[in-house]
Design brief:
3-stranded mixed beta sheet, single chain, mainly beta, 10% helix
């Protein structure tokens, strides 16, 4: 070995720019012949300095990303509906807070896309019972109002509020207007045979 009759000191320290265990420098260039007994100093990188993963759960996506990127972490984001966490805020992080991480590590943030909404089905023209069943199946509360209508058969939905296709949160109230059929006409005759 070239260093068989020499001795060397090994220095190790963290470096943000050099990967772990790669030689940073030596006091002699590679392939240099040295005299026996010459002290060689080899410096080896331990890689980036580790640090504790911060907690970003409950903060906004932009604030979380800024915090992590400033620390040199790579951020990946996925979205998920959540009924309890405000839209745009972090629900969870793939690396728990307090875990040891280093620059260049990737952390995935799960961000709330808000409560899941449902598009209201079109129940106009359907029977009262069918319309109610459809909307309740979608998770809505149904209120029924009745109106006379000369053009729409009795117990048939005339219209709905909010209209079909509107995105609503489950549990929202949908009002359906149901036909009572044609309004009956009452004639009252007076003693002379006329109508009043």
């Amino acid at each position: 070995s070239k260093f068989a009759s020499s001795y060397y000191a090994l220095e190790m320290f963290p470096s943000e720019s050099v990967t772990v265990r790669y030689k940073l420098n030596a006091y002699f260039p590679a392939d240099t012949k040295v005299e026996e007994g010459t002290k060689l100093t080899i410096t080896v990188s331990l890689g980036p300095v580790p640090f504790d993963m911060p907690s970003v759960v409950g903060v906004s996506q932009s604030q979380a990303e800024n915090t992590l990127i400033q620390k040199g972490l790579v951020v990946s984001v996925e979205y998920k509906h959540d009924d309890t966490v405000k839209e745009g805020y972090v629900i969870s992080q793939s690396i728990a807070s307090g875990k040891s991480v280093k620059r260049g590590d990737t952390v995935t943030l799960t961000v709330s896309s808000g409560r899941e909404t449902v598009d209201i089905a079109d129940v106009v023209g359907k029977s009262r019972s069918e319309a109610k069943s459809i909307l309740e199946y979608q998770g809505f509360k149904v209120s029924i109002l009745e109106n006379y209508d000369t053009a729409v058969p009795k117990d048939t939905v005339i219209r709905q509020e909010p209209p079909a296709g509107t995105a609503q949160l489950p549990g929202s109230e949908i009002v359906i207007y149901v036909s009572k059929g044609k309004q009956p006409i009452t004639l009252t005759f007076d003693t002379n045979g006329g109508t009043v």
